[in-house]
Amino acid sequence: MIDHSRRESPNECCGILAGRDGEVSKIFRVRHSAPSPYRYIMDPREMMEVMRETDRQGIDLMAFYHSHTHSPAYPSDTDTRMALESGWVDCTYVLVSREDEDKPDVRFFVIDSDGAVSDQKVRMLQ
Prior knowledge:
With 126 residues, the chain is α+β, with helices and mostly antiparallel strands. The protein is built from three helices and six strands.
């Protein structure tokens, strides 16, 4: 995800994490259909392709990720609004902040159906 965010800079990147039994085994980079440094929109066709591919592989969608180019790794008001409008609530969102380019910050969150944001604790394997 960090590499993806670097490659897409100065625009935000986006993608999907998938796996099984709470462990991520696959990262899908999804094309940003309206490149911008301020928000992301996953290409709907690529999103559908990822969903079909995860079904074929027997793995689950686990999280959506995107980068913030100049702000902290925390869902913005726009991120929250877009989650609510899309219906993708009560799922995990991962934010990669490039605010400090030398030290990217990665954090995990859930946005619920009321728009409340809560931190998710994850264990990173090396």
